[in-house]
Write a structure and sequence with these properties.
A hairpin with a 5-residue loop joins strand 15 and strand 16. Helices cover 37% and strands 22% of the residues. Bound molecules: zinc ion (2 copies).
Length: 415
């Protein structure tokens, strides 16, 4: 009897872990090119931080949080997203200031208690960036273009953008009022959650996934129609730049992204490698959150990429090269003397930075060659008893099957 992995989580096995390493490294390299620096925050935070920032009436806070009490009775929560922790840490260490631009990125696991389904885990991984201190629409465009650069570095096919503007403190009340007016006539035919939301947070009705609510949601007023002049100007500037940089996008009036803190721009990035419904990444502007969490008013924008989704795309084989599990060199030996020499050469090859391995089970030479093939070794150095006695080893190129005799005193050079 074995134990099994907890529901909604999975083990990432060695072959897939190679993809994860490539993905994470590419994220780091691309973010770095645009001057983003990494921040690492704890896996858990005070529950209050998430309730305050994401919003008590959101699905995340009301249904999906891994909340627990520690031994002193403090309420803690495994982070369901990373924007609030980054703001918390940025304020705590004075990284976020209204008079300067601060660019941060993160990579790591997040936790949400959701019904497990394809592509959705209870422990999942995100990479994301947050920019603080600038209200410039060019920053909104910069973070969207970062997605494009990342996709192209991963050799993934084209992306398209779903974009919307959800307004600001000034124009939100009018939108809220229009939503209330729209929904109030049919609210009795809608789900219990929506009935609750109507009073407390009518915007969240737009996130509802219940079938019976959809026809009312489809006809709801759009936030872009109630934007104030400032929000309208900002949205127009973002759209113009996306056009200029030839980003494919559609304005999606229903895009409100399930969190309370968004203002102005909100967007989702879709890869053409996935179905139309599958956003790989999402984000937006959140100009009020820093002040909401105790800082001075500081505009901000960011996004988070779902890494499981990207791994899925990477696995689908739309990329050009094959397995990343290759070894540069395998050393096959026969007899004790050959084994010792082989081990010495193995260590020297690794010191030169080549990936190399040998057999440690005393298998037959033929079995060792099969293993080398299975490991995807590019070269195999064969050290047999007879050959060594005659003063040479055999270097085999696995691709061409060409074999070369190498004199013992030159072996060190060829490994
Ligand atoms: Zn506005
Ligand atoms: Zn509903």
């Amino acid at each position: 009897m074995y134990y099994s992995v907890p529901r909604g989580t999975k083990d990432i096995l060695p072959e897939e872990a190679l993809l994860w390493q490539e993905l994470e490294q590419t994220c780091r390299d691309i973010f770095r090119l645009s001057n983003y620096l990494e921040i690492r925050t704890p896996i858990f935070e005070s529950t209050e931080l998430f309730a305050r920032s994401i919003g008590k009436t959101t699905d995340i806070v009301s249904k999906e949080m891994y909340e627990f009490k520690d031994r002193k009775g403090r309420s803690l929560t495994l982070r369901p997203e990373e924007t609030a922790p980054v703001v918390r840490a940025g304020l705590e260490h004075s990284l976020i200031r209204p008079d300067q631009v601060t660019k941060l990125y993160y990579i790591g696991p997040m936790f949400r208690y959701e019904r497990p389904q394809a592509g959705r885990q209870r422990q999942f991984h995100q990479a994301g960036v947050e920019v603080f201190g600038s209200a410039d629409p060019l920053i909104d465009v910069e973070v969207i273009l970062l997605n494009r650069q990342l996709f192209s570095a991963l050799r993934l096919k084209g992306l398209s953008v779903n974009i919307n503007s959800v307004g600001c403190k000034k124009c939100r009340p009018e939108f809220r009022k229009q939503l209330k007016d729209h929904f109030k006539y049919n609210i009795n035919k809608m789900c219990a959650d929506c009935q609750n939301r109507l009073e407390h947070n009518p915007l969240r009705i737009l996130d509802c996934k219940e079938a019976k609510c959809q026809k009312y949601i489809e006809l709801a007023p759009a936030s872009v129609d109630t934007l104030c002049d400032e929000c309208k100007g900002h949205f127009g500037a973002v759209i113009k730049q996306l056009d200029y940089h030839q980003v494919k996008f559609v304005v999606n009036k229903r895009l409100v992204r399930g969190l309370d803190y968004y203002t102005k721009t909100s967007f989702e990035i879709i890869s053409s490698n996935l179905g139309a419904q599958n956003a790989v990444s999402g984000g937006g502007r959140y100009d009020d959150l820093v002040a909401e969490l105790g800082g001075k008013p500081t505009p901000a924008v960011g996004f988070a990429i779902g890494l499981e989704r990207l791994i899925e795309v990477m696995k689908k084989g739309t990329r050009d090269e094959g397995r990343g599990t290759q070894l540069d060199l395998f050393i096959a030996t026969l007899g004790d003397k050959a084994r010792e020499l082989g081990f010495d050469l193995l260590i020297k090859a690794r010191q030169k930075g080549r990936s190399a391995d040998m057999d440690y089970l005393g298998k037959a030479l033929k079995t060792q060659l099969k293993l080398a093939d299975k490991l995807g070794a590019k070269q195999v150095l064969i050290l047999g008893e007879d050959e060594l006695n005659k003063g040479y080893g055999i270097l085999k190129d696995m691709k061409t099957s060409k074999q070369t005799e190498v004199r013992i005193d030159s072996l060190e050079e060829v490994v």
